[in-house]
Amino acid sequence: MKIVVGLGNPGREYAATRHNLGFMVADTLARRLGATPARSRFKAEIAEANHNSEKIVLVKPQTYMNLSGHAVREVVNWHKVPRANVLVVLDELDLPFGTIRLRAEGSAGGHNGLAHIIEQLGGKDIARLRIGIGRGQIAATAQVLSRFSSAEQAELPELISAAADCAMLWLDEGIVAAMNRCNRRVASDEPQGADRAAP
C-alpha cells in the first residue's frame, strides 16, 4: 500500500491560501481514485481507495502545518508502511508559481510541515512533490497564507491537475519514472536546467 499526504492548514479561513495546495491536490486525487468519503482519524482527514490492486491512503493532517508530522507518524505506524511508500505534497516558496519538483529524499528546505514529518518519521528518505507558489514581495509567512492572484487563479486548476498527474505516476510507476517526467514541467520564467528545490 501507499500513503499520499497533502499538507495544509485546517479551517475555512485557510482553504484558498497558497499553503493549502497540498490539500487541493489530495482532494483531486480522492476524486480521481474514487476514494471513500474522508473520515477523521489520527488527527487527520483520511480517505482510502483501491488502485491497481493496491490500497491507497490519502491523508490531510488537521493539526496546523508545523505539527503535520504527528498525524503522518500515526498513520504510517498503524499501517506499518515504510517511508519509501509515502509521498508528501506541499507548497514551495522557492519555486516560481506553476513549477513542480518531485524528489525522493532530502532536507525540508525551510518548509515547517515537511520538517516535522521528517522529524517524526525519523529520516529524510521521504518522497516530496513540491508545487511552486513563488516568494512574492512580502514576508514568507504572509506569502504562504495569502490567496492567489486573479491571474494565478486562472492557472490553478491546471497546476493542481498536473501535480495530481505526478502523484498518479508515483503510484503507478515509482519515484524514478515520476521524477523523469514531472520535473520537466518548468515555469516559463525559470532557466532550463535550474532546480531551485534541490535539497
Summarize this structure as a short list of keywords or feature phrases:
21% strand; alpha/beta; 199 residues; disordered C terminus; 7 strands
Q: What is the domain tally? A: 1
Radius of gyration: 15 Å
Percent of sequence in beta strands: 15-25%
> At CATH's second level, what is the architecture?
3-Layer(aba) Sandwich
Output the helix-strand order. Answer: EHEEEHEEHEHHH
* Unreliable runs: 186-199
Distance between the termini: 26 Å
The class by helix and strand makeup works out as alpha/beta
Could you give the count of β-strands?
Answer: 7
Find the CATH superfamily: Peptidyl-tRNA hydrolase
Question: Which strand order do you get reading across the main beta sheet?
Answer: 2-3-4-1-5-7-6
Question: What is the averaged pLDDT score?
Answer: 88
Task: Explain this structure.
This protein has 199 residues and is an alpha/beta fold. The protein has a single domain (2-182), classed as Peptidyl-tRNA hydrolase (Rossmann fold, 3-Layer(aba) Sandwich). 36% of the residues lie in helices and 21% in strands. The protein contains six helices and seven strands, in the order βαβββαββαβααα. The chain has helices at 21-33, 68-79, 112-121, 140-144, 150-173, 175-182; strands at residues 2-6, 39-41, 44-51, 54-61, 86-92, 100-103, 127-132. A seven-stranded mixed beta sheet has the order 2-3-4-1-5-7-6, with helices on both faces. Helix 1 crosses helix 5 (150-173), helix 2 (68-79) runs parallel beside helix 3 (112-121) and helix 5 runs antiparallel to helix 6 (175-182). It is globular. The two termini are 26 Å apart.
